[in-house]
Amino acid sequence: MLNAVALYLVACNMPNRLFTHYLATETGPAAKGDLQVQFLGNTTLLFSDGETALLTDGFFTRPGLLKLLLGKIAPDSTEITRCLRKAGIGRLNAVVALHSHFDHAMDAPLVARFTGATLIGSASTANIGRGCNLPDSLLLIPQLNQPLQIGSFTLTFVKTAHWPYPNAQLRTKLLHNSVEEPLVPPAKMEAYKEGDTYTLLIQHRSTTLAVQGSAGFSTGVLQGCHADILFLGIGGLELMDEAYNQAYQKEVTEMLNPDVVVPIHWDDITTRLSDKPKTVNRLVSLLQGINPQKALQQVVKRNTNRKIITLPLWKPVAVSQLLQTTRQGLPE
What we know:
By secondary structure, the chain is of the alpha/beta class. The chain is about 30% helix and about 20% strand.
């Protein structure tokens, strides 16, 4: 594990130049029926058309490094409420956990309770919900590869693989395992086990979106699927070799063949959400080789025929605008 004390003392964050180069602009409130997306850090995305609202993951607590690595963690209801208000979220139809690690599913039960939403996810996610006293009436385990209607959205859950941690100890603790009973917080980070990892396909009228919450893949599972816009998890790509990066792009991006790729899962999940997202601090980058900008470069160089767009934090962006944005090359 990292030297937690040293990491905690370093608050300097990497510059966001490459991410701001591809930044989309906000469009303000949507007309009724117009689909918008709002980036709320990590893999938390709000999709809304003014009638139906869907949130992926809903992770807002963001424990500090010391607590994350050495202590126990729990949802922070005050911080969750602050972020929901800042994002303008009142009622939600559903909260979808893309898998059950803490940075995806820990806050989801409280978000569901505060917004009246159904929490949708794996059996592990359901046990995280039960540990937070969410009733079974608000828990839903989806059938794989079967359309699920949520208001004006049609959701399809495709089981895939999580990003394979290079660290063998983390692989053992966090992958290919499940939360087998109600998980009552506070708990150790590793108590939030993977469960099922999904690629989420979202159909809204004539537009199809895909959310890939983790930079992992399973060979062939997305064969025959398509997305106009792919929200692509890129965290950890910089730590993988050329063969892995090529396979990830082939099995996810090329299979889905989107017009637009929107990178997600690149900001620092141990830093409280403020007005702008922050990338990993410099010491983490130095010790672990973690570099989100390098991960983004891996995606850009393999998608020269697609538009790469990053989203502003908190601000709604029309999906139609993402599809119309002009393609940009790498900054000089």
